[in-house]
Amino acid sequence: MRRVVSVGAAAMAVALVLAACDAPRVESTTAAAPVGTVLVSPSPEEAVQRLLGALAEGRFDEAATLVPAEQWSLVALAEGADLADVADVYRSGGLDVGINFWSEFTTGMADTLGVGPAALRVGDVRRFVAGGRSFAEVNVYQAKDASFRRIVTVADDSGWAVDVVASFAEALVPRLAQEADKVLSTSGGDAATVLEAMRGAEASFRAVVSLDRVSPELYQAAVVAVEAITR
After folding, report:
1. Residue 223 class from Cβ within 10 Å (0-12 exposed, 13-18 middle, 19+ buried)?
2. Angle, nearest 10°, between helix axes 83-92 and 189-200?
3. Residue 209, C-beta contacts closer than 8 angstroms, at least 6 positions apart
4. I need a surface site. Which of 30, 47, 131, 134 has the fewest CB within 10 A?
5. Rounded CA gap, 85 and 91, in Å?
6. Three-class HEC string of 138-186
7. Torsion of CA 66, 73, 198, 175, to 10 degrees
């Protein structure tokens, strides 16, 4: 698969911790989980704590498997990959995309904010339902100045996982809303596969609409995405 161009993990780090870089690609140092495997936790707080712990120790392969596997294809789509590559990511489970995403995020966070994931603490949790699924906004903050931001988690019958689309909505959802029309207007198996991935994330787009303190621009982008994939 061709290399996916990063949308800027440093900007995503700022989005997560304050308001809303390329690092070297990192290869997994442990055995990859089977395609589609998601490591779930019994509560939203534990899911986020597990993520922060993995990132602090550089276990980016584990961090990648804390996210529903199909969401990595949407990260690839937002980052500018062509439909054939996005479809490949969807079919393969996207572990490499997830590893690189979290590696760049951690590097960008350190470069931009001067702190790493170990400096973040878990705070309040707000649970809600969107698109028929259970979500939770987990506030995280920097220990030194108590600046709050959120990581969104999503639940199924097995437990809680990290929802990358909703957590990084400011960076991802406007791009995905723009890509939706292109996907819908393209024929062929790859476009159909990508549309399947986008439709699988419908609840995540709906969750963005229900987030606390969402901007009008982000709200509208999420609505556009939902309208496009539910035609």
Report:
1. middle
2. 60
3. 130, 219, 222, 223, 226
4. 30
5. 10
6. EEEEECCCCCEEEEEEEECCCCEEECHHHHCHHHHHHHHHHHHHHHHCC
7. 110
Instruction: Round the CA-based radius of gyration of the chain to a whole number and report it.
Output: 16
User: Helix 83-92 to helix 71-78 angle, to the nearest 10 degrees?
Assistant: 160
In the block, residue with structure tokens 């498997």 = 65
Q: How many residues does the chain have?
A: 231
d(CA 50, CA 18): 21
Q: pLDDT tens string for the chain (231 positions)?
A: 444 434 444 445 444 433 333 333 333 333 333 345 688 999 999 999 999 999 999 999 999 999 999 999 999 999 999 999 999 999 999 999 999 999 999 998 877 777 788 888 898 999 999 999 999 999 998 866 666 578 999 999 999 999 999 999 999 999 999 999 899 999 899 999 999 999 999 999 999 999 988 999 999 999 999 999 998
- The pair phi, psi for residue 159, each rounded to 5°, is 155, -160
Q: How far apart are CA 52 and CA 200, in angstroms?
A: 26
| Amino acid (1-letter code) at residue 138 | V
Q: Give the three-class secondary structure for 127.
A: strand
Render 8-33 in DSSP notation, one character per residue. Answer: -HHHHHHHHHT----------SSPPP
List C-alpha distances in Å: 108 to 16, 55, 111, 188, 211: 11, 12, 5, 37, 24
What span, in angstroms and rounded, lies between the C-alpha atoms of 187 and 15?
Answer: 35
